[in-house]
Write a structure and sequence with these properties.
This protein is an alpha/beta fold. 37% of the residues lie in helices and 18% in strands.
Length: 460
């Protein structure tokens, strides 16, 4: 339950931000960064984004009834309602930190290079089977602003919180953990991510594992994926320092000797430990999603959920937008929309899913660039050719400047049926007439490639 009665007032805003009071003390009905959502009595925080600057909407927010505004820019005319701070992002994170500290409920941090969003959705669904109301990160709002906004959505009715944490630079994990103050930690998998700043897979993995370092230091329960080589190395180095019961290991491979072993069985997963067993239907297809489900179930063991509570929670599961959405067209064509993000690990898993679901059917991989892979991005794109050839995916449709590398690699290896396009429109124009009833199609790319444009065209 909530730890103490706490309500925002203007005086508490000034106190939290270390500012002298500049307004009469009044209740604040909510905190928002969206000027369109401002209601009477709200605090509006003007954030500079990639495409919009919230400072441009300050007049509209005040007109809509905002009691005060946090701004990095002084007002052109004197207005005590506009509170100037050095960084509105730092300010909203400070407010989120204070709000989070007023809650005494489980806070589960979901970290990792791939699988975070789906594992977050699965974990929150499962926990709802026991706790009822569970706060979770919306979509993939896992950055410096997104985590803060998630925490500010906490309400007294929430009985647990599942917070997705994403990192794109050295030191980011420590800052997120300081804000979230997790009570439990789950690391999905390591892999190539944001290498334009993190530089190497080894550095990226080390930064992700800062969450385990934090958990070890604070004595927090951790769900440990033994199928990940970097996690195994961490366990070799630090596992003996875990107190009894602090860590629960899991894997789909019995050779890892995990505490909890999962086994796939035609759309279901059998989960077995020494004294507990359950068979669950996998709500999403593919081995990678079976692994995500195993991770979520492992985390749930810290809360003693029964098999019935887990199944009850999973019954309400809905996949996040753009994450392995499977569509069946009237003519029997199956389309897998997995367009929210792409990196070498997740792309390999998606291609494996396409091949497994499409046995006996023509296979089409429609792929956009993988972004933020750093100086080795050409290598990672060319490397996809091996998977496409191994899985015998005969029709490859590529979009984006980086996918030219994959196109060149496939042509060099003598692969037929590969095409590269300069625009969504040209790709769609060629793809639609090439599809036949019963074909299987995967659409995947990094968020910035907007591959949902192709998906919507196919769905009509």
């Amino acid at each position: 339950m909530i730890g103490m009665a706490f309500e925002w007032t203007t005086s508490r805003i000034f106190e939290t931000l270390g500012l002298p009071p500049a307004l009469a003390d009044s209740s604040i009905t909510g905190i928002t960064t969206d000027s369109r959502a401002v209601k009477a009595g709200n605090l509006f925080v003007a954030i500079r984004g990639d495409t919009h600057d919230g400072h441009a909407f300050i007049p509209g927010a005040l007109a809509a009834g905002a009691i005060a505004v946090l701004s990095e820019t002084p007002p052109t005319a004197s207005d005590s309602r506009i509170i100037v701070v050095p960084s509105t992002l730092d300010a909203i994170r400070a407010l989120a930190a204070r709000w989070r500290r007023s809650f005494e409920i489980p806070f589960i941090a979901i970290v990792g290079a791939v699988g975070k969003t789906t594992t977050k959705e699965l974990t929150s669904s499962i926990l709802e089977g026991k706790f009822g109301r569970v706060l979770k990160t919306e979509g993939s709002q896992n950055g410096f602003l997104g985590v803060a906004l998630t925490l500010l959505r906490l309400r007294p009715e929430d009985r647990a919180a599942v917070i997705e944490i994403g990192i794109d630079d050295i030191g980011a994990m420590d800052q997120h953990l300081e804000l979230v103050v997790p009570t439990h930690v789950l690391l999905t998998r390591t892999g190539p991510e944001h290498l334009h700043q993190l530089k190497t897979v080894e550095i990226a993995a080390k930064e992700e594992l800062r969450a385990f370092d934090h958990a070890l230091k604070q004595g927090l329960p951790v769900a440990i994926n033994l199928s990940d080589p970097f996690v195994r190395d961490w366990m070799t180095a630090h596992g003996s320092a875990l107190r009894p019961g602090q860590g629960i290991t899991y894997s789909l491979d019995s050779k890892d000797h995990p505490d909890i072993l999962g086994g796939e069985r035609d759309g279901s997963i059998e989960i077995d430990s020494k004294d507990w067993k359950v068979v669950l239907d996998c709500p999403l297809p593919g081995s990678h999603h079976a692994h995500n489900l195993l991770a979520a179930v492992t985390l749930s063991r810290f809360f003693g959920l029964s098999a019935d509570e887990i199944k009850k929670g999973l019954s309400g599961f809905k996949t996040a937008l753009g994450r392995t959405e499977v569509y069946h067209l009237p003519d029997g064509t199956e389309v897998i929309g997995d367009h929210y993000n792409s990196n070498p690990t997740s792309l390999a898993a998606a291609l494996e899913l396409l091949a497994r679901s499409g046995k006996g059917h023509p296979l089409h991989a429609v792929l956009g660039d993988m972004l933020e892979l750093g100086e080795n991005e050409e290598h990672y794109h060319r490397e996809v050719a091996s998977e496409l050839i191994r899985l015998q995916i005969g029709s490859v449709w590529l979009y984006g400047p980086r996918m030219r590398w994959l196109n060149d690699e496939l042509v060099r290896r003598g692969t037929k049926g590969v095409r590269h396009f300069e625009s969504h429109a040209d790709l769609i124009e060629s793809l639609r007439p090439a599809l036949r009833p019963g074909d299987r199609v995967l659409i995947k790319g990094s968020r910035g490639m907007r591959m949902e444009t192709v998906l919507k065209a196919l769905l009509g």
